Amino acid sequence: MFKKILIANRGEIACRVIKTARKMGIQTVAVYSDADRNALHVEMADEAVHIGPPPANQSYIVIDKIMDAIRQTGAEAVHPGYGFLSENMKFAEALEAAGVAFIGPPVGAIEAMGDKITSKKIAAEAGVSTVPGYMGLIADADEAVKISQQIGYPVMIKASAGGGGKGMRIAWNDTEAREGFESSRNEAANSFGDDRIFIEKFVTQPRHIEIQVLADKHGNAVYLHERECSIQRRNQKVIEEAPSPFLDEATRKAMGEQAVALAKAVGYTSAGTVEFIVDGDRNFYFLEMNTRLQVEHPVTELITGVDLVEQMIRVASGEPLPFRQEDLKINGWAIESRLYAEDPYRNFLPSIGRLTRYRPPAEIAAGPMVSSGKWLAGDVRQGATAVRNDTGVYEGGEISMYYDPMIAKLCTWAPTRDRAIEAMREALDGFEVEGIGHNLPFLSAVMDHPRFVSGDITTAFIAEEYPDGFQGVEPSPEDLHRIAATAAAMHRVAEIRRTRITGRLGNHERHVGSNWVVLIGKHEIKVRMVADPEGADVTIGDQTLRVEGDWLPGMSLARLTVDSEPLVIKVDKIHAGYRMRTRGADLKVYVRRPRTAELARFMPEKVAPDTSKFLLCPMPGLVVKINVAQGDEVQEGQALATIEAMKMENILRAEKKAVVKSVNAEPGQSLRVDDIIMEFE
Q1: Whose CA, among 108, 181, 563, 628, lies 20 to 30 Å from 122?
Q2: Annotated active-site positions, please?
């Protein structure tokens, strides 16, 4: 077994590998750029080597710098994580030439499967169902349009060496095919150093289901069942679960066996994932094979009890797999929510800055475990749940514009899907993140969405259910009453404390009073409160709600019960009220005396400034391209500029017909949020 391994990656996956290496008694080496000097993975590792400036193409994907770090530290093996060099054949070759073990598949398998064009040809030859498309190299945008017309719209434009949603675009017409080809090629070149592009038919209403495979150097290969990854945005997975709520046992077996057959056909070893698109009739089509560990691997670990990173390390050191296919049962249900540094209220645009507050929920261990091929009894009681949080950040740390915007992967496990969803709701409720935009509200909204709860999902779920973007959740009348009752009870506690601090004499509770008006948006809710030492009875109309909890002013998380039902609210004090966030709702709540509420109705509303004549930068980023010039007339939907942020290109388009008055930015310029890119007449 190896004594020291180097992790050629960063962030949460580097931390994840370090945890398993520690458990196995293996020393670890981290590599880091200038931007990651104080990163969590650097702190966790036994050693750390600086490898260059923040851009990945000057640090993390420069093979010579990684090889130099290996020589400096004497590492015997390298785990590449995912992204960066994880599927780079030249990197694997360099390691092999240096006598350093690659904790991943052999060079031949990377070459065959890492290239999506080649992998589709091999899959077809192996009898695996494939999506119709053009597998040859595409020279330019004109050829891309011609091929797209021949295949028939819609088409998927994909980077041959891509992954993680990078270098992928869906095109529904010639214009989108032309723009998509250029953006995909640029992203592919910047992220992977390989700008080859191919095009395939986009299957409408598909489900994205993938099979985890694991193979050793002794001819043994197994599949560890499937993961459902259909909740996606911009071709990037957001929520995954294992198993899939859609597959039956026959389809699961057929997909698993095809995945193993494909792995054996290319002499695959280590962990890998075979991705399929599955239609409504459970017909499945091969998409690609990822010759690396997947981001969503924790849900597979939670339902099988297999530590995939440990098995990758053991396989790389020459050990055989400790289990057979019949040993790998599905136990319970697991769900993963990807927490991203992106603002759901600004069309999920990336957000950067300092994590002024980062408090994930407590991790809880439960579920099955496997050791040396034998099942160990885990806590699988009906009420048992597990919570796992894979992260690479900490409170006070910086979220950089140079890398993927993922903050953490929050996972829950339970014996049933319904209970796993409920456990995820509770975990999201208790997850505190401040200082940057993040998608926690959106994740909570999905967990409560009827389509997701029923399992009726496709890769079009987000586009169909949130066509105008995510604007937050509008609470039901019942939930509004629960929130109003809670706000009134919390306000009473705050007012009692305030009267004590001011030193007023007499009965503090009598001074606070019992009648209040709670304003939530346009909703005005009259409440009457009767308090006791354990809580308060809050009457709204003809309904009385019992509110109990130990919240005190200054606490950012209120854990309460309303009529014995739990309610968790993130609380911030704002002028004359509270900002209250719960289950995807983000509310400004004001608790006023009846007379104050009456007078407040006459207060004029603040009007937001008119910015319709400006194109503002929606995120911190780098200007890649300016498509228009001063004096140009632009049409609605026309591309105006391309901004790169967190490894993704974002095309900004005209919202209406206009004439460009001035252009205030140029390619290569770094912009902040709301910087003016151009002005219109």
Answers
A1: 181
A2: 288
